Amino acid sequence: MQIIEASDHGWKHYQHPREGTLEVIPMGRGSADGVNYNLTLTRYGSDADAFVTPRHHHTFEQVRAPLVGDLNYGPGEEVPEGWLSYFPAGAPYGPQRVSGGVILLLQFGTDYLTSDQYKRAHAALETRGRFEGGDYHDVDPATGEARVRDAVDAVWTEALGRPIRHPRPRYPAPILIDPDAFDWAPLAEDPRVQCKRLGSFTERDVSLSRVRLDGGVLGLGPDRTQLVFSLGEGLEADGKVRPRWTAMWSARGEESAVSGTGGVEALVVQLPCEPA
To answer: What is the domain-level CATH number for residue 247?
Structure first.
């Protein structure tokens, strides 16, 4: 099991192709069952440094959980603090303006870029054009005419060496989830573990749950990569009690377990299972 405690790391400025300031704490990155994934704690700049994007969509999927403050994702549209949201691949959202706050952000997909791919593509684009207002401005080499593209799309196109293909969205818009509206149910394996099953998405069964442990043990099977993210202090893994905002990764092929007392809660994400 890979364990990453946010308290062991400081916030770092993140270079991105949008407007505004982002700081991140990396909480896990890798590949599993045909998808690349990246988990960060993301902190947004405020006021003049607010994070701003045009309306856009992505080729990859996202899970966003506001931990401090609400998350704006469009005019008059907010994911409230403490809620959870699933952003489907291909579904448009924005324009957004996020001023302040901290979210847990998980992004994953078959063509999600590695860190090195992203950095190389971003640097290459800066030599041929400019990022401005969430877009990328350059000259089309085929026609010699000025063009404007979505900044993230431009980075992905550069990195992949081909035009990106946005999938037909399985769901037309981001899905918001209020965990407080769900009831707790004991797990059959250990009734001391209470679970709220918040949703399962797509044919690859991306699943989101909230668990509460009061002396119980949550087992993590070998069939897929799974994330347990502690929302408070008290979860125990590898013989140590972990602080809040700890990411615990159980990789495909290994069997792991976490325990906890005092009703400590955690978010559990099961990444896509292996395609049939």
So the answer is: 2.60.120.10
